Amino acid sequence: MIDQARQTATLGTLTQALGKETVDTSPQTLARYAAPGMVPAGVVLPADEAQLARVLEAARTSGGVVQTVCNGAYGLEKAVQDKVIVLDLQKMNKVLEVNDELATCLVEPGVTFRQLDAHIKEKGIKLWVDFPGNPDESVAASFINRRPGYTPYSDHFLMQCGLEVMLADGKMVRTGMGAMPKSTCWQLFKFGYGPWVDGLFTQSDFGVVTKVGMWMMPQPPAHQTFMVAVPKEDDLGPLLDVLGPLKLNMVVANGVAVGNALHEAALLGKRRADFEGQGPMAASAVKAAGESLGLGYWNLYGSLYGLPDNVAILWDMVKGAFSSISGARVIVDGKGVDPKLWAWRMGSMTGVVTDPPARTAGWSGDMALTVNPVSPVDGEEAVKLYELSRDICAKNGFDFVGETTAIWRSANHRQVLSHAAGKGEDAARAKTCAEALIAAQAEAGFGQILTDPGLGAAVAKTYEKGGRSALHARVKQALDPNSIFASV
Asked: Per the database record, which ranges form the FAD-binding PCMH-type domain (predicted)?
């Protein structure tokens, strides 16, 4: 439990040192960062590294506990502990470099995908920005949280190259080739010399990321986007079985999204109340809901890239493979699909950074908890995960609203538990359901790859074997002996 007196002392010191414009304790601001049962004591918004160092110094001397977020301006990042001081880096938002020839960028943590895209367009640079679905998410946060996008550069952790971090004692560290004073390859070669430590600062409480380098995708000569809609609930297995070899052999190179009918309906701004019946929807109702929108029970979005002749050859292969599924519709022109959904889904695979038609949290409320298990890109395993998750959701009164993103050899799942803000019983029910999902999925061999505030303890319980927690504790003690960074 965080000591409120120490938090108050830390905020007082920071207000005196940095000014009231840097420290915000207004109820409206605190509400934007609050998660169920967790309201921050205050929000500090440093404008540069010097102010950031002052924040960490105040936390060390006053015994304060801070939680770093990259951009809380849009309510995307929430408090992970009650009474924590949120250290929001949104004002540190410079695009430091975009290298057109080598296809790299270097940005501060407050830079959003929308801002980076605008910078590239203003400069006339022919590079694509890969984003995880929300243009207002921080580029650095997507790396820190290991969130996937939808182009061939969808693995943001893999595409990161070069990191600058401020440690708890205020010292700055540059990783990889950035540790060499005159290096010409900080954003080009990931590893430098000796142990590679960048991963220590993802999903962790070990330091504050102040700069992040990323590889970016050059615009390809040609591409072919497509959608595959399959009509039945049990078509998920065949759909993933066809996709698996195509991903393994890098035929379909992008982060392939597979959304169920309710997920896509939610993306279009539809709500549970728009459809007949009450309570969790039966499979027949989900199928009917999809059909009413021109969608399948499951809807896959993929793209091919390369030289025009090569894309044409690959397209014949891919179209034939998915057409082998009974009842599948392979769509390239958007016919029969809502134009807003079609434009956003196709754009997300081709570097078009724009808002989705709606937020999936609106399906049966206005906020959501998400559960994020990972499975192989394999039909049998995906069905096993889906069925146990669907049943637990229904038992707790939730529809199954989910999207899967296939990257390399894994399928990263995002299951949305939508509920109403301001209703404590709804939030509690969502948390109970999420914890039940996490436990059951782990028992079946499906681990979580990221988690929402309030669920970290439930996820940590599933990763206890092999000395993981003991190793993290040893690193924490070495890098943050005063525990000024809140546990995530």
From this structure: 36-219
Grade residue 487 by pLDDT with cuts at 50, 70 and 90. confident
User: From CA 242, how far away is CA 358, in angstroms rounded?
Assistant: 30
What value does the mean pLDDT take over residues 457-475? 84
Could you give the CA distance from residue 316 to residue 311 in angstroms, rounded to a whole number?
9
Residues 211-215, mean pLDDT to the nearest whole number: 98
Please check whether residues 306 and 326 belong to one and the same domain: yes
Same domain, 239 and 349: yes
34 and 99, same domain (yes or no): no
CA dihedral over 330, 269, 257, 188, signed as positive or negative:
positive
Q: For 90, which DSSP code?
A: T
Contact 6, 62 (CB under 8 A): yes
Q: Residue range 67-74: average pLDDT?
A: 92
User: Are 214 and 105 a contacting pair, CB within 8 Å?
Assistant: yes
Cα separations (Å) of 411 from 236, 243, 348, 377? 13, 11, 18, 5
CATH number for the domain that contains residue 378 = 3.40.462.10
Quickly state the pLDDT bin for 467 (edges 50, 70, 90): low
Q: How many domains does the chain have?
A: 3
Say how far apart CA 59 and CA 152 lie, in whole Å: 41
What stretches of 47-192 show up as alpha helix (H) in DSSP? 49-62, 113-123, 139-144, 156-159
Helix (H) or strand (E) holding 102: none
Q: Given pLDDT bands bounded at 50, 70 and 90, which one contains residue 466?
A: low
85 and 120, same domain (yes or no): no
State the DSSP H helix or E strand holding residue 450, giving kind and residue range, or none if neither: none
Give tens-digit pLDDT for 307-324: 999 999 999 999 999 999
DSSP labels, 214-277:
EE-EEPPSEEEEEEEEE-SGGGHHHHHHHHHHHHHTTSS-S-EEEEEHHHHHHHTT--GGGSSS
pLDDT, one tens digit per residue, over 276-300 is 988 999 999 999 999 999 999 999 9
Q: Rg for the chain (alpha carbons), in Å?
A: 23
Contact status, residue 438 vs residue 459, Cβ threshold 8 Å: yes
**Residue 328: both structure tokens together:** 């599948």
The model's confidence at residue 148, banded by pLDDT at 50, 70 and 90, is very high
